[in-house]
Amino acid sequence: MIQDKPAGPSLLSALEQTRLRVSQNTGAQKKSLFGQFLTPARTARFMAGLFRPTAADRCRLLDPGAGIGSLTSAFLDRCHPGDLRFFAIDVTAFELDGLLHAELARSLSRFTAHTQLTHEILGGDFIEQAVNRVQFGQTPFTHAILNPPYKKIGSASRYRLLLRQIGIETVNLYSAFVALTVALMAPGGQVVAIIPRSFCNGPYYRPFRDFMLERAAIRHLHLFDSRTNAFKDDAVLQENIIIVLERGARQGEVTVSASTDDGFSDLASHTHPFERIVLPGDPERFIQVPMTLEPNAIERSPAVACSLAEIGVGVSTGPVVDFRLKVHLRDLPGPGTVPLLYPAHFRGLGTEWPKPGLKKPNAIQRNAETEKWLYPNGCYCVVRRFSAKEERRRIIAGAVRPGAFDGTEMLGFENHLNVFHERKQGLPEALALGLAVFLSTSAVDENFRRFNGHTQVNATDLKLMKYPSRAALIALGEWAISTATAPTQAMIDGQLAKLTL
Q1: 3-state helix, strand and coil shares in percent for the chain, rounded to the nearest 5
Q2: Which of 240, 297, 259, 251 is nearest to 277 (CA)?
Q3: Total-model pTM
Q4: With 50 as the cut, is the pLDDT of residue 202 above it?
């Protein structure tokens, strides 16, 4: 039996000093190559604390991408006081970077004096070895703790081909590591992982969400409110989430917690029914992260229940990719040009065009090569596809009205905009403005942040949202048209409140 004598905070403190030294001595190019960002000690302790005690007397722990052993050490440190009791622990630690193996071995050896511990450190490629283990049915693991690498996987890469052999289709190393880890777990096996939040939404991660949700239950989600503090020593700007999964378990309620950063001083936690995490009937199975027990205004309102298709509106990414049409771009409008609209041309619900001195072009030449990328002049609602990393709003909407472009027949929408339209034609003015008003409400932005954890707003995300009816949107637009001054945020939110009564 593992002794009750604790390893003591000095072991993890020493390991944290090692992490800082290794991180500072690892160049940015290598970090990018390996997708390597070592886990801070406080985050590692918190993650280890999320495992539930079990009746099993033997633990088989997997740590893919183990680095210097911060996560495994935090897990082993939790075992010493008897919080997690095992007769013996077997650790399998994968680490591709051979230069870290000596530090990893030292980290694990510190626990052998107090623990019936065996461990193996495996170099080489985790994805290749994990695929082989799944295919040959090797002994599964009971626990896994991981901070996987972050790096895109090419559609024709060797990794994609390997993963497809066992039914995994995904676009990033981090989701591949999590999917493989789930596949390697025994029934009831627990997985605790810290990963970017980008898997929660978007079409590219739909196969990964399906794979995960079909094989495991979500037990806990922890969100860091700050983008910059979870891995501040490595300048990681991803919005990270900690997820706890249980292999083959029945899905029940999910605990959702949040803290500003890895200090966890303002930790808040609530329990939600799974129906608030993955909405019933959602074909994309977006992972929602509600931050309050009470449903927000969008959830509560029966008036916000229509799909875009039901209100007769489509949304598309702006078709003008400027670097591909560079020869046709013009700094300012001139003979033969039409307006080219970028996010910088929108302020509030209106348009500012042209903008002299703008670093982007204001116009595009209309000719046989550009014609197919242009829209007829008319009324449109637009939403920026990208927001700044710490910007107050995620959804930033505006409206296009033809009077701002007198004398032109066509408009160019640059690729950093999403455009609401009606079969590639303009919308009725009140409908376009009504969409812009609705999308500018605080409630919509708050609701959107529940499933979108990065700075990109995709057309797919906007298609899957619920909207008021066409008549209600037109009423919002008519209010905006009749307002003498530019509406404030309070005025916009007030209109939604009236709509949802």
Answers
A1: 35, 25, 40
A2: 251
A3: 0.81
A4: yes
